[in-house]
């Protein structure tokens, strides 16, 4: 729903890591990024000038992207004013121009007052009616199976076995050219491991025969961790009548139900201080000097409280996805391993301090009454007390990655090469 691309250095790092800057870089991929998008004016006709940069948006793609329906309120205007007054936080015209660090207006995959997604963009009615496309529903991919002999050291895997957990029926489908396995950061390693492709010792443990020892499968799981923080606030937040809002949306697709009303309209991305001892001690996990470490969505005001989210974008911690059993219908075992690396806890503390500095600006005078915590600088609480309470309240953000990683040709650590072919 929130439309973010990341830093150009993120894309360039893929090229450096894979040894293929020709294929994997911001400049190479940008035309394809624009190709999938159509920038759509906000519903209701408000003027979004000054809130995005049209040079970084497409006009003929299937996925519609826009800004919120509603105009700026008092909170939003204070956000803009605060960036003007606090030089630490630079305002940016467009969050998706490849240099996101700073303050930007939030963009969403909405269009015409309705939510867009990969499903609506690429599997709409006209697509589903194509004679060369079959969509199979209510089945589960159990595994992929070698179709022929090894060629150039690779397994020839073009057969997919599917079944249903509610019956004993199993079917196999063989592709003439290739199979694209794209089941997400949790589903992809689950299918590969059920197929006997993974770390042999882990497969032996659950009784799955190994057809290809590939230790990287399911390793390297990473996600954004987050924690809620809060400030006292004077006054109340206007609430909308849901029945009235629904009638408005049904009439012309405008109103609070045409946007993510509870979320503020702007995001702040920030980096740890340049001379932070964390970066000296552990290295910089960000892809470049313009890539942020911390994300702070701005504006979750409820009655007498402003809620903030501190999101760590660059954790060092890594977890795993493993099989629970040899039954492909059993859910995998997930070990997210959050905050296991010391950098992550300390970086989250720095994220809270960044948020405290942001909300200490003069633009918040008369609205915010003080920081409510959790506070790493609270002298009445020991470090261990704070960290234990912090760990109990931290959450994931549903952005898992890394379990079928791309690596340079010849590497023994990854799962796919620079052409996304399995090792």
Automatic annotation (TrEMBL):
<keyword id="KW-0964">Secreted</keyword>
<feature type="region of interest" description="Disordered">
    <location>
        <begin position="401"/>
        <end position="423"/>
    </location>
</feature>
<feature type="binding site">
    <location>
        <position position="141"/>
    </location>
    <ligand>
        <name>FAD</name>
    </ligand>
</feature>
<keyword id="KW-0285">Flavoprotein</keyword>
<dbReference type="Pfam" id="PF00732">
    <property type="entry name" value="GMC_oxred_N"/>
</dbReference>
<comment type="function">
    <text>Catalyzes the single-oxidation or sequential double oxidation reaction of carbohydrates primarily at carbon-2 and/or carbon-3 with the concomitant reduction of the flavin. Accepts only a narrow range of electron acceptors such as substituted benzoquinones and complexed metal ions and reacts extremely slowly with O(2) as acceptor.</text>
</comment>
<dbReference type="InterPro" id="IPR012132">
    <property type="entry name" value="GMC_OxRdtase"/>
</dbReference>
<keyword id="KW-0274">FAD</keyword>
<dbReference type="GO" id="GO:0033718">
    <property type="term" value="F:pyranose dehydrogenase (acceptor) activity"/>
</dbReference>
<dbReference type="Pfam" id="PF05199">
    <property type="entry name" value="GMC_oxred_C"/>
</dbReference>
<dbReference type="InterPro" id="IPR007867">
    <property type="entry name" value="GMC_OxRtase_C"/>
</dbReference>
<comment type="similarity">
    <text>Belongs to the GMC oxidoreductase family.</text>
</comment>
<dbReference type="GO" id="GO:0005576">
    <property type="term" value="C:extracellular region"/>
</dbReference>
<dbReference type="GO" id="GO:0050660">
    <property type="term" value="F:flavin adenine dinucleotide binding"/>
</dbReference>
<dbReference type="InterPro" id="IPR000172">
    <property type="entry name" value="GMC_OxRdtase_N"/>
</dbReference>
<dbReference type="InterPro" id="IPR036188">
    <property type="entry name" value="FAD/NAD-bd_sf"/>
</dbReference>
<comment type="subunit">
    <text>Monomer.</text>
</comment>
<feature type="compositionally biased region" description="Basic and acidic residues">
    <location>
        <begin position="414"/>
        <end position="423"/>
    </location>
</feature>
<feature type="domain" description="Glucose-methanol-choline oxidoreductase N-terminal">
    <location>
        <begin position="184"/>
        <end position="198"/>
    </location>
</feature>
<protein>
    <recommendedName>
        <fullName>pyranose dehydrogenase (acceptor)</fullName>
        <ecNumber>1.1.99.29</ecNumber>
    </recommendedName>
</protein>
């Amino acid at each position: 729903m929130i439309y973010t691309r990341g830093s150009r250095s993120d894309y360039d790092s893929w090229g450096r890591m894979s040894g293929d800057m020709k294929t994997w870089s911001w400049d190479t991929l940008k035309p394809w990024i624009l190709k999938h998008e159509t920038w759509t004016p906000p519903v209701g006709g408000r003027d979004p000038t000054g809130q995005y940069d049209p040079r970084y948006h497409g006009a003929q793609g299937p996925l519609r992207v826009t800004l919120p329906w509603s105009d700026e309120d008092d909170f939003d205007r204070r956000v803009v004013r605060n960036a003007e007054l606090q030089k630490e936080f630079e305002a940016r015209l467009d969050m998706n121009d490849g240099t996101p660090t700073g303050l930007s207006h939030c963009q969403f995959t909405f269009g015409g007052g309705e939510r867009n997604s990969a499903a609506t963009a690429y599997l709409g009615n006209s697509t589903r009616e194509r004679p060369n496309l079959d969509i199979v529903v209510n089945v589960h991919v159990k595994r992929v199976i070698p179709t022929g002999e090894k060629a150039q050291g690779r397994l020839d895997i073009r057969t997919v076995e599917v079944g249903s957990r509610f019956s004993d029926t199993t079917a196999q489908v063989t592709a003439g050219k290739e199979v694209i396995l794209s089941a997400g950061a949790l589903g992809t390693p689950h299918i590969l491991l059920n197929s006997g492709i993974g770390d042999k010792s882990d497969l032996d443990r659950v009784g799955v025969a190994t057809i290809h020892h590939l230790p990287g499968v399911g390793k390297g799981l990473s996600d954004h961790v987050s924690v809620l923080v809060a400030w006292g606030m004077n006054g109340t937040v206007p609430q909308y009548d849901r029945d009235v809002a629904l009638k408005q949306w049904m009439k012309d697709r405008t109103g609070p139900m045409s946007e993510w009303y509870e979320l503020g309209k702007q995001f702040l991305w920030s980096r740890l201080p340049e001379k932070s001892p964390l970066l000296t001690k552990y290295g910089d996990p960000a892809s470049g000097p313009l890539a942020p470490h911390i994300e702070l969505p701005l504006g979750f005001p409820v009655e007498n409280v402003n809620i903030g989210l501190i999101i760590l974008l660059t954790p060092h911690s890594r977890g795993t996805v493993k099989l629970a059993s040899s039954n492909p219908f059993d859910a995998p075992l997930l070990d997210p391993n959050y905050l296991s690396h010391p950098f992550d806890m300390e970086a989250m503390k720095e994220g809270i301090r960044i948020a405290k500095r942001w909300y200490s600006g003069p633009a918040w005078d008369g609205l915010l009454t003080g920081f409510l915590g959790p506070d790493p600088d609270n002298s009445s609480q020991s470090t261990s007390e704070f960290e234990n309470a912090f760990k109990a309240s931290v959450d994931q953000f549903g952005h898992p990655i890394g379990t079928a990683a791309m690596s340079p040709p010849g590497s023994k650590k990854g799962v796919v090469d620079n052409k996304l072919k399995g090792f």
